Backbone:
DNA sequence: TATGAATGAGGTTTCATTCAT
DNA sequence: TATGAATGAAACCTCATTCAT
């Protein structure tokens, strides 16, 4: 049995994860690698500053202290650098190698909370990128598809976990595991979007606490007595 | 005390509601009004077909069987027609004059369910527009702000309702009403977005049922015995 | 023999005077005349505010509280209203029905001074219009021609006056009367342009005094002793 | 002490001189410099042919055998090329490194005459440009300001010279030096404008002679016996 | 690999003028 | 006479992409 916590950081509805396949061969020389890296870093800065739509390739080249010609040595298009930017960020979104738990019931609360916290923190670090991804997904069907697929992978896994909790008599059996999984994942990711991406900037402890309680209540579990807190 | 049901259809996190202020004086003649209306309708079709970004004003004018000059007689920019399009859609999103309940506890489930259903149905009818709004909100700070404000209005109202339920001993008192309100609203709107806007096209009955159960469970209420259902 | 004073107010190099021929028949009804007048007045205000180039016919119509359709009832084009505006201003530029003198030598200084003062004052009242005329003359050959012709009429007259002064032994005979006339007229009109039209806003008394002395000195006349003054 | 002759060609009321600051970085490659130069030359031809207002950027690009995109590589706007055109012309207007005189009184006439002649000749060569400048100054406040400032620099210098001539007892002490300076500068520049820019095309010798005599007479100096002049 | 000049399709915007009412 | 909606030619401007060096 896997906890939801184990999976969430790998995607959690965000679709921020990118296809592993390299868009093109990486440069061979060390110099080339450096140039490519500085282009990706510059692209991220420019995207976050101006948005994907309003960004210009020349700005990216300038920001990377290279020429536009050099840009085309490494990337074929804006979409391609954007993919590269996401690939880098992906490492951070995944980074917290979270506990794959087979947890005793009384520990689940703690694991869920840790997982939610890790997710919110990662989201916070990459909030501007998430806005970008949101933007690009509304424009480009490829990115939209990517995101839906990632989301499905995650919710399927959570659904299986919910199913097994139900079987074990630990969760409300009247719930549809898949739809419930989608709903709860939506809840957390959207909360993060409003707080970090749209700048609502709510108290993270309160977000973590509320999210964790709601998962528990919603699934028909019970949380040990705790101190209420608010934003 | 207002129930969530009474408020949700008026906004529910969508931010689809537009400022009431007219963007500019409406045309005086009947002919002018007809032209303006056909431009708004054409704009909606073009936006939904091509997206806001990829749409061209000339296409809108052509679709409305007018000249581009006529477009500028009524609107100053793409943003302005888009606002007009939202204003029209808003009527539909608000339309279901839902029961303002002071409900007996045993009826709350029914009211919540009706409210959720109405919301999902309205969302379905305007799904493409919601994608558009999502897109525009990532590009234009004004629309982003509009949306955040609308969302706040709605979640504040729900928070007050949750608070009063807690006081009446009908809801889990350990929950932060405001954060809980945000989380639950996020859940429903995001579910609708994935299903209708991103084309996941899930079973609406299942969505309504799951959403309603989760609100109940999450808030620590109890639902009368019911038949399980799935997607 | 005519004094320069007598002619200057009729034009003095400005070319502000417009062809007397009506551009089209004036409206017959009293109502029509009123509408036309308010259009001309509105046009002047708009031209002075926005310049000829940057003005829009719709603004003129709006300013006159009529419609653009009505504008075309009275005028065929922007040029045509502009002509009408000049015709009205012309009355003011001419207005000071100055003394046609056959002056005793000792009075010429006074007449010249009065004439210069009248010219500067009229120019001041119509300064914004003079900027406009300058602008239009650089764009439209018709207005340019008009202005050159007017200028010639004036300088010819002054040249004849200079010639007769030379014959009478009252002016430097080594001067070419025509070129001198052009030079002196240029001097006064340009001085006015800088002060009033370009906003240098010099002291008018000083301008009058200097202009009068320079005409006198330049023509080889002598002025009775006077108190020096400055800006 | 500088003579008016020494300064006039540097400005003389024309305001044709442009700010030295480069409008933007010049192109780095030789090819780029060539392209920029041909654009400036083409712009001048088009401006002189069609006027500033009626000129089109596409015409300038075509005339320079480049694309409109290339135009925007070097200039941001019509105003900016116009500035560049003026900068080039400025070299010609300034070019005659005129005698900086500390002249014996009997030589002043000759210096003044040479100065006037140089000014008229330069004006003649750039006459069409002066029309343009006149036009642009009536439209664009920046150019208007530039021109007023240039004019002030020049007239201030002349005023100081007049003042020192008065102190030396060589000029009419009843004249206000500054206003006199403005008047005389106006006279010469306007004469040139009518003759060369508006196409009156008067005899240059006569213009030079008249201008020189009038300066002399006006300032209360005396000219040695002279040869009769022509029309 | 790196450079940056050159390109031009494609969009937006303006406004004098027409014309049906 | 008065109205104001409709028109569309004509200009402006952007920027991803190509390519010679």
Residues:
């Amino acid at each position: 049995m896997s906890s939801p916590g184990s999976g969430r950081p790998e995607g959690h509805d965000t679709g921020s994860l990118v296809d592993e396949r390299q868009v093109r061969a990486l440069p061979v020389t060390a110099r080339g690698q450096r140039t490519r890296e500085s282009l990706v870093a510059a692209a991220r800065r420019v995207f976050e500053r101006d948005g994907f739509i309003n960004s210009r390739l020349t700005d990216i080249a300038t920001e990377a202290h290279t020429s536009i010609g050099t840009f085309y040595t490494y990337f074929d298009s804006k979409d391609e650098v954007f993919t590269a930017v996401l690939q880098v960020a992906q490492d951070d979104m995944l980074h917290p190698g979270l506990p794959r738990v087979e947890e005793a019931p009384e520990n689940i609360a703690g694991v869920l909370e840790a997982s939610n916290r890790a997710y919110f923190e990662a989201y916070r670090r990459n909030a501007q990128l998430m806005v970008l991804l949101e933007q690009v997904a509304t424009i480009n069907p490829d990115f939209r598809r990517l995101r839906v697929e990632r989301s499905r992978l995650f919710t399927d896994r959570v659904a299986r976990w919910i199913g097994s909790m139900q079987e074990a008599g630990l969760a409300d059996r009247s719930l549809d595991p898949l739809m419930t999984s989608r709903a709860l994942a939506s809840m957390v990711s959207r909360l993060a979007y409003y707080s970090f991406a749209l700048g609502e900037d709510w108290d993270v402890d309160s977000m973590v606490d509320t999210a964790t309680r709601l998962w528990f209540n919603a699934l028909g579990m019970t949380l040990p007595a705790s101190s209420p807190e608010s934003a």
Observations:
- The radius of gyration of chain B is 20 Å.
